[in-house]
Structure to design on (278 residues):
């Protein structure tokens, strides 16, 4: 056996190279895909990775059709000096799903850590398993959540979009329910560059605060939440149909460089909520 698989807490698996000199391409994608279907999150650690961004994109093509953005296939997540959007800042990023503002919603997010933040500098990528959140929700809470629909609007360098989504919906290809939710940036987290506009139907205006707090509590509960602390060379493959994700803030100028590629499902999922897109 060239690798060891251990469970992460509370979900996902860590796959570690059992001897030096192995590369991520030594792991069969179809075996990984089976694990992914069960676990929703794979962390590959200790394997050789990629010579360049192109090489990384080429590896991701082995998982399916790569989603192409105006910038290409690989998003280089590096803090910018004067960011026009929070994704290029060192702030925290609230929970969301990728592709919510795009014509297709990708199934796989593949992250590659080129350089990790220094120890103690934060910058973990956060994941909430919404299948678990819903399995653990009280009947009353579930009832309320099932009646909520949200409208999100966001304009940034790569799009200007409006999307509408029920809070609780079915996984597009599997028989379980998931949450689709974009958390509002919380006030106590300080300045947040370019937040989205949000509107919720099915929640009384006076109850919005309580509604958001209950979701926050559930999404970040230790029973459903995993935060990935990066090590150089880590590859993380996350189920964007089932999980929501975000980021912890990090110390400015810490050498955090994460690359991200989105891979579409087969067949690709046309974004069911997209109302306008530019
Ligand atoms: Fe994202």
């Amino acid at each position: 056996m060239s690798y060891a698989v251990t469970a992460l807490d509370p979900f996902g698996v860590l796959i570690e190279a059992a001897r030096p000199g192995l590369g991520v391409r030594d792991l069969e994608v179809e075996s990984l895909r089976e694990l992914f279907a069960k676990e929703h999150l794979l962390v590959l650690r200790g394997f050789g990775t990629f010579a360049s961004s192109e090489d990384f994109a080429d590896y991701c093509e082995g998982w399916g059709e790569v989603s192409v953005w105006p910038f290409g296939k690989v998003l280089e997540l590096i803090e910018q000096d004067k960011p026009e959007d929070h994704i290029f800042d060192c702030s925290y990023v609230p929970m969301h799903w990728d592709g919510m503002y795009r014509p297709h919603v990708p199934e796989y997010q593949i992250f590659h850590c080129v350089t990790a933040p220094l120890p103690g500098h934060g910058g973990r990528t956060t994941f909430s398993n919404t299948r678990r959140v819903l399995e653990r929700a009280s009947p009353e809470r579930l009832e309320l959540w099932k009646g909520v629909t949200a409208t999100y609007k966001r304009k940034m360098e790569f799009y200007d979009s409006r999307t509408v989504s029920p809070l609780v919906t079915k996984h597009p290809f599997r028989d379980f329910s998931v949450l689709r939710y974009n958390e509002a940036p919380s006030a106590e987290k300080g300045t947040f560059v370019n937040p989205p506009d949000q509107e919720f139907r099915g929640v009384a205006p006076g109850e919005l605060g309580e509604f958001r707090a209950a979701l926050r509590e559930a999404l970040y509960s230790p029973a459903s939440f995993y935060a990935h602390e990066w090590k150089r060379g880590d590859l993380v493959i996350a189920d964007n149909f089932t999980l929501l994700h975000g980021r912890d803030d990090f110390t400015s100028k810490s050498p955090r460089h994460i690359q991200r590629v989105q891979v579409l499902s087969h067949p690709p999922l046309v974004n069911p909520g997209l109302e306008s897109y530019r």
User: Anything to note?
Assistant: The longest strand covers residues 108-115.
